[in-house]
Amino acid sequence: MTTQPATACVSQDAAADIARRARSNLAFALFGMPPERRRDMITFYAFCRLADDIADETGRPAEEKQRLLDQWSAALSGPVAGEHPLAAAMRETCARYGIDPALPQEILEGVAMDIHPRRFDTIAALESYSHKVASVVGLVSIEIFGYSNPGCRDYAKSLGLALQWTNIMRDVGEDAANERIYLPTEEIARHGLNESEILGRVHDERFTALMQAIDRHADGHYQQAMASLPATDRRSMAPAEAMRMIYQAIATRMRRDGYRVFEKRYRISKARKFWLLARARLL
Fold first, then answer.
1. What is the separation of C-alpha 207 from the centre of its chain, rounded to a whole number of angstroms?
2. Which domain holds residue 125?
């Protein structure tokens, strides 16, 4: 029987703890995966969660946030002084699946854009940001899931955008409370609204129309993802399909409820998530 180095065990324990505390939908999606791949996905998820938390943490100076992200960037290539306990496991995961180091680096570049919250003037600008923080996450994930058809990469890119746009819809109220707006400025204006009204949590027919437009855009990406998923890789992509079904269910709930995102954070039950996971594995 082989044993893992103590440092690897510490890294994996740290990753599992981060995943537990985050209470992410990913935990449901990964249920039933082969143990090693599930472990490595949890490591990768923890890396993404840590990077995102660094950029979003209130009270930490921007210079310190950038320093920590730069430290992570260096740690992806090799051990560095003061690195996070998870760094070694992240390097091992990338090496095990031959993951291009440029991919996790791109994720770090994306979350760094949140250090100084900005506005996205156009859909194209938001798509560029979303590619870094969501589509690239998908491109790394499918390497860990395993696939045979390169078409899975197009699937990962489209699904990442779809999930990100659904997150943006769901988090409008939470983001506004933190003086952040991710909805494209041109779309806000096109529907007769302005930034102060979004930050002021105005919910009227104009806001509903804006959210319907964003919802249609997200749904377009879902449709592209489903159309580009190779039939030969449906089984290996079951975790990603579970995520798609969970987030589409959240989008449907928002739509039917009139996008009351200033009043509530939309969720679906654990039982519903397990049902969707089972469905994803049977398709």
1. 25
2. 117-283
